[in-house]
């Protein structure tokens, strides 16, 4: 087995050394062996809405822009209220259910947190 650490970004075990850098062939991440120990601990990222408010699981948000539904001719209209969101990692960082549409994934940049 290799004595090299796993990639801190994608956890791939196929890391190789090039001069003083370690390189992951799967995601292309380059890192130092010393810094890999410090960055190997996953940190929880903060997800913010379009106004800069911090979002949490269970929040209610409002859609701030008409959003086309991929694979359909329908549109989620501006002002649509979405209750009980769930935050996930990835490009679309909100999972939710929208009345009339069902389960969807949204980007946080297109919603605003509802303050009660």
From TrEMBL:
<keyword id="KW-0378">Hydrolase</keyword>
<feature type="domain" description="Protein YjdM N-terminal">
    <location>
        <begin position="4"/>
        <end position="31"/>
    </location>
</feature>
<dbReference type="Pfam" id="PF08274">
    <property type="entry name" value="Zn_Ribbon_YjdM"/>
</dbReference>
<dbReference type="Pfam" id="PF03831">
    <property type="entry name" value="YjdM"/>
</dbReference>
<dbReference type="InterPro" id="IPR013987">
    <property type="entry name" value="YjdM_N"/>
</dbReference>
<protein>
    <submittedName>
        <fullName>Phosphonoacetate hydrolase</fullName>
    </submittedName>
</protein>
<dbReference type="GO" id="GO:0016787">
    <property type="term" value="F:hydrolase activity"/>
</dbReference>
<feature type="domain" description="Protein YjdM C-terminal">
    <location>
        <begin position="47"/>
        <end position="114"/>
    </location>
</feature>
<dbReference type="InterPro" id="IPR004624">
    <property type="entry name" value="YjdM"/>
</dbReference>
<dbReference type="InterPro" id="IPR013988">
    <property type="entry name" value="YjdM_C"/>
</dbReference>
<comment type="similarity">
    <text>Belongs to the YjdM family.</text>
</comment>
